[in-house]
Specification:
Subcellular location: Cell membrane
Pfam families: ExbD
CATH class of one domain: Alpha Beta
Number of strands: 5
Radius of gyration: 29 Å
Family: Belongs to the ExbD/TolR family.
Distance between the termini: 108 Å
Largest sheet: 5 strands, mixed
Strand order of the largest sheet: 3-2-1-4-5
Keywords: Cell membrane, Membrane, Protein transport, Transmembrane, Transmembrane helix, Transport
CATH topology of one domain: Nucleotidyltransferase, domain 5
GO molecular function: transmembrane transporter activity
């Protein structure tokens, strides 16, 4: 004779650990593949000057020099800080178009040699439309008369 056990059968349950693994993998995937704005990474303090900005019909090639003297051409960084490395990066980004305007943005704390190196590389490659970016001078706050 068989005696039946009256215990409750195991109830089915949903295992959440694989679901959590998949969600974490998706979060990591989206974080890694998100594009970041290169300008938010570089904090430049442009030198100040009076003048009006020039209007251009074509998109200017952007050459950034940070405070440590490192070069960034559009969204690419030059591997080294010498003229040849900078020229190679310029050729890779700009191609053969030497009539394209160039906007040189150098931090106000940049060593002068880095700016001269950038201008030298641009001149050796034949870029003639080079502009240097500046910030407008800060106007002192006028005191209000009582």
């Amino acid at each position: 004779m068989r005696i039946r056990d009256h215990r409750e059968d195991d109830t089915p349950e949903i295992n959440l650990i694989p679901l959590i693994d998949v969600v974490l993998c998706l979060i990591i995937f989206f974080v890694v593949t998100t594009t970041f704005d290169a300008r938010s990474v570089l904090k430049l303090q442009l030198p100040q000057a009076n003048g009006t900005p020039a209007e251009s019909q074509t998109k200017a090639l952007s050459v950034l020099v940070n405070a440590e003297g490192r070069f960034f051409i559009d969204d690419r960084e030059a591997l080294r800080t010498d003229v040849e490395s900078l020229k190679q990066t310029l050729v890779d980004v700009a191609g053969t178009d030497r009539t394209r305007p160039v906007l040189l943005r150098a931090d106000g704390r940049t060593p002068h040699q880095s700016v001269v190196t950038a201008l030298d590389a641009l001149a050796q490659l034949g870029f003639s439309r080079v502009s240097i970016a500046t910030a407008p001078p800060v106007q002192p706050a006028q005191a209000k008369a009582p």
